Amino acid sequence: MNDLHKQIASNNPWQRAQGQLHKAAEKLALDPLLLARLSSPDRVISVSIPVKMDDGTIRTFEGMRVQHNNLRGPYKGGLRYHSQVDTDEVKALSFWMTMKNAVIDVPFGGGKGGVIVDPKEFSAGELERLTREFGRKISPVIGPTLDVPAPDVNTNSQIMKWIAEEYAVYVGNKTPAVITGKAIEDGGSEGRTEATGLGGSYALAVILKKLKKNPKGMTVAIQGFGNVGSFLARYLFDMGCKIVALSDSKGGMYVPEGISSIDEVERCKEKSGMLAGCYCVGSVCDISNQKKVKGKTITSDEVLTLPVDIVVPAALENAITKENAPKVQAKIILEMANGPLTQEADEMLSKQGVTVIPDILANSGGVAVSYFEWEQNMQSEKWSKKEVFNKLQKKMEFATEAVYEESVKQKVSLREAAYLVALKRIRAVYS
Hints:
Layout: H1 3-7, H2 13-28, H3 32-39, E1 43-52, E2 58-69, E3 75-82, H4 87-103, E4 110-116, H5 124-138, E5 147-151, H6 157-171, H7 192-210, E6 219-223, H8 227-239, E7 242-248, E8 251-254, H9 262-272, E9 296-298, E10 310-313, E11 332-334, H10 343-351, E12 355-357, H11 359-362, H12 365-379, H13 385-410, H14 414-429
Parallel strand pairs: 3-4, 3-5, 6-7, 6-10, 10-11, 11-12
Antiparallel strand pairs: 1-2, 2-4, 7-8, 8-9
Helix pairs in contact: 2-4, 2-14, 4-14, 5-6, 7-8, 7-12, 7-13, 12-13, 13-14
Active site: 112
Binding site for NAD(+): 196, 227
Keywords: NAD, Nucleotide-binding, Oxidoreductase
């Protein structure tokens, strides 16, 4: 292992991304000039965002947009509002978007952006003023055929609407395709809310079939019960899987016999504000109170090391590290969060015989439907949810088949295979 490969043992996301790229490039004997282009973003845009706060004071925030590569099409990726947004993180996320879009085979490159801010500390008016100023600052570097942002951490359809409105002022006309993740009434796509979770279920179904495993009765633990985790839980439940554990940032529940109703869990969380509160402390009551089962409250970290068939990290980066990797008992990990395994954990789990379905494949359903939204906007069309889901299923199954076949052919992990598939598709358009 050379120095660059050793570098990725670090939890620094950009170092990890670099290591993943160079490892796959070596196996493909990638053109050195193409490798150089992929090793650094095309551009990093930094903007200053002065905002008048409700108390009359002026505060200035830092925003950024990283455009990694556009060989396959416009830059594409989310905008996040978070106090810990930093350049290395955003560069890595933009690189992973380049790879993800190539794996799922949509005509986009990779981009990512954000503002260093805690939006929870803002009033609605302050958030709008911040967003509109950010939108004005990035309007010259985005556009339907240039760079198409989307929601990410702490951003939503309303924030996308404000940015789209500022872009419309900049270009002089309404342009829905400049951004995705919009509300349905603003040109958003049917099925976008469910897309990432549903796409993950499609990817898992293909891999289980390849491994000759029947999903019925397989036990699943999901860390993260936000949009992605909650929809995934529903779809896996419908596949016949037994959902035995769920968690959010405040804790979770473990029901070895299987949670009887995901809808009841959702309603309970909305009422109590957390999943752990849905269980009687020190008791054994079921979420629906319709029958008695053996269950208990657990921490979010404990979800990852339960005796289950499938573990789904759907919350945070670096959730599984060298410290807790030896405790993982599942034989399949479905990565629904971005970068939930450190490089060291990934290598350890591979030696333990664990099949890891990588994030750039597993959670690519969201960007696939973002592409569908963009395509509908560009063609002035409106597709039904059924049509969107059918197209998503075909995309996910095709991509998963390609990654699995590459894995078998090259005798490498699914993660390495995903990067090989992505780089081959990028190389195909490179000249």
